[in-house]
Amino acid sequence: MVKIHKTNQTYAYPLPAVSLAYFLRYPNPYSTHVLSTDVISRSFDPLTQRLHTTRLHLKRSKLPPAILKILPKGILGAGVGGEGKSFVLEKSTVDVKEGWMETESQNLEWTGVLSVIERAKYTRTGTEMSSDVKNAALEMGKDVRTDVTTTVTFRSRFGQALRGNRWKGDKGESNVGEAEEEKKCFFSSWSTSSLQRTIEGMGVRRARDSLVKSSHGMNVVLERWRNGGLGGMLEGMRRDRELVISAGKET
Questions:
Q1: What count of other Cβ atoms lies within 10 Å of the Cβ of residue 159?
Q2: Helix or strand or coil: residue 44?
């Protein structure tokens, strides 16, 4: 089963500024759950003039209570109430010369419950601008903007692995009656497909809120760039990092 959520939005900033904000968006007031970001690899292709980056984000995470109610205890390997930490793998390609950036992020934890892949395409629109961030700041008065199309794909395979393990372990020993009894043990009146649809639907609703917060966070970082340039961005990151560290000590 698969669900897809698609959104479109526009930032009233040039692509060089938006791409810079993307890489410097953590932490911000709307992403205090992000604990760390590490660059796994980064390379620049002189032929295509494209920058390729792979990063790993560590985040505090918590599954929605509605999902926890339908999952057996211990399946997540998380703390009480589904709380824990999870990694998100992010890949990106920036082509400032042609005027676009593509990103892809996916969760590495709890994929057996719900796999989430977020893809975004950032496209330069409006007046042609310099590919340099510093020059772009001088041209802010022009009709420039960056359009973003984000597509989030949700796929739940929950139930398939459990069912497969049962049949594998009982091969040659179980009969039809025992198999039916095992189904009733947990799934009861739920079918595997209905569970998957439920989990995916909850994921979509949560993603809507997450994308709104992500947009707010990007705008905060972009406003810092408008008012203080790169120095303003970095100073804001420093203050937000202190807040994240303080919150971690309190918990």
A1: 20
A2: strand
Q: Compute the C-alpha angle 207/212/217, nearest 5°.
A: 120
Residue type, 224: R
Q: Please state the three-class secondary structure of 98-148 as a single string.
A: CCEEEEEEEECCCCCCCEEEEEEEEEEEECCCCCCHHHHHHCCCCCEEEEE
- pLDDT at 124 (0 to 100): 94
Please tell me whether the peptide bond between 27 and the residue prior to it is cis, using omega within 30 degrees of 0: yes
Q: How many residues does the chain have?
A: 251
Short-list 113, 60, 122, 58, CA closest to 90: 58
CA distances in angstroms from 22 to 66, 103, 113, 176, 205, listed in the order given: 31, 10, 28, 54, 23
Indicate the angle between helix axes 176-186 and 160-169, nearest 10 degrees.
Answer: 150
Tokens of 78: 């998380």
* The pLDDT value given to residue 198: 77
Alpha carbon 90 to chain centroid distance?
A: 8
Both tokens of 237, joined, read 């990151």
Q: Do the Cβ atoms of 135 and 20 come closer than 8 Å?
A: no
Output the pTM of the full model. 0.78
pLDDT score, position 200: 79
Task: With beta carbons less than 8 A apart as the criterion, state whether 241 and 27 touch.
Answer: yes
Q: What confidence score (pLDDT) does residue 139 get?
A: 55
The first and second tokens of residue 195, run together, are 């569970």
Q: Which two tokens stand for residue 13?
A: 């900033």
CA-derived radius of gyration, the chain: 22
d(CA 185, CA 157): 19
Residues of the chain with pLDDT under 70: 1, 62-83, 127-143, 159-192, 248-251
* H/E stretch holding 223: helix 192-250
Calpha distance 216→29 (Å, rounded): 9
